[in-house]
Amino acid sequence: MSGTRAARIEAPLNDGTIPASRVPVVAEADVVVVGGGPGGFAAALRAARAGARTILIERFDMPGGVHTSGLQGAAGEGVGGIHTELMERFAAKGFIYVATENDLPGWAGNPLSHYERNMKPGSPFRRASFNPEGAGCEMALMLAEAGVDCMYATAFVEAIVEAQAGRDNKIAAVVVHDAEGLRAVRGKIFIDGTGTAELAARAGAPVGSGGGGQPAGADWDGVERPIPGGLLWIMSGVDFAQTARHQESARDPTLSRLIAEASAAGDIPPGLYRPRMKGGNVYGEAYIGHPTLDFSPMLREGTFVVWQNVPYEWALRMDESAGDASRARGELRGFIEAEARFLRKYAPGFSAATLMDVGRFVGVRDGRHPVGEHVFSLADAREGREFRDAISKPMTKTFFWDGPRKHRFQVPFRCFLPKNVENLLLTGASLSFEYETIFMVMRNFPWCAQTGEIAGFAAARCVERGVSPKEFEWRETYF
Ligand SMILES: Cc1cc2nc3c(=O)[nH]c(=O)nc-3n(C[C@H](O)[C@H](O)[C@H](O)COP(=O)(O)OP(=O)(O)OC[C@H]3O[C@@H](n4cnc5c(N)ncnc54)[C@H](O)[C@@H]3O)c2cc1C
To answer: Can you tell me the distance from the alpha carbon of 105 to that of 34, in angstroms, rounded to the nearest whole number?
Structure first.
């Protein structure tokens, strides 16, 4: 463990489920954050900067979650607070790469583009990405500067929960697994930054599974599945101008002809390129393999991030089923190898391309939904509700459930407070919201960083005042 603040504690930990002798309590802090994605990172940083002794537990070797370990380096305008600071620090270190129509003339409107495919061909665009490895280093540095005790290569496995008469339960400690085996970390306030509400679920908060219905009028087979997760990978050495010339001259914008040729030669494994569902449902447009190969420029010229999404028809719940998680990891890695091989062999512009990197994990887009003291709902958005405990000024968003209609709404602090657990705050993709609202704001990187910052701020205030998050009165907007 880095840092010096986490003192060894000899007091036994024994709730009867794990022998105390096997789980020494090795650290304690005011605020213990589990998971260091945008939510957990910002929470730990904000809590430590506010003076709370803070520990961050992260299973990988750097913070940033989907956006670093998962290679999803999409960068954008800062939305304020820590998110803006991140964008500025990444830029200052030279970690942001910007592609425009000058670098990639055939990119806007190209069906292979993840973000720009719906643009008018030839139109100007600006696609900014950050280098995930560089960004992870910078985020780790920020945590170290703020004095956060970071436990990397450490997986959270269980919550030790105490019952309290007449009140919600309390997390006493979390059990983690690291190079020394099972150990425990005690805390006053805990923050769930796992991206899948794993801490909330293990601590006994009610949770729902990902997935649900579809907007009215969507072409949908009636099966409720979570929005598929994805494994991102990087290919470099691509001569995209050559690819674009081929798409045009061969009239093969989606490379379907090349895929058919490769299939006939036995070079495409079953399942790699699947038909997509059509219409305005949440699976069809963005989250399957073909016809969009899903590329985005990143890092430097000729380097692209490529999406390998879980086939939606597999309906995997990677956050709840070990078998699903293992299947996703194994099969998607196989697809990546096959796709890279196909591109190099068949697609003009790829003959010198190299498979550079594969994300450390398959990102979960739609995991558990914890039930908080307030569950942000479709009705909250549609009716433009405002709340006395709103965390920000009203936001204006559209989302496909309601077509182009704009919604102006607020999110209350109660969405950070899971039911049944007194000393736990939620962040990021683990906030309490209905599946239907998932694309409004609830899971994008800037928002996850903002919610983390709010949770860290609230946790530090609770410690200072000696109250639990449930007792904390949220009165002013933060953003
Ligand atoms: C494939 C994919 C593409 C996406 N594309 C975009 C995009 O283009 N733009 C955008 O804004 N958003 C995008 N998102 C959404 C966004 O990335 C996530 O919603 C956001 O990262 C969630 O932040 P988080 O901090 O809640 O969780 P995460 O980013 O998931 O981070 C969770 C962290 O917790 C750690 N962790 C989890 N469990 C444990 C454990 N048991 N022990 C220790 N550590 C643990 C993980 O290692 C990880 O570091 C995408 C998501 C996915 C999956």
So the answer is: 43
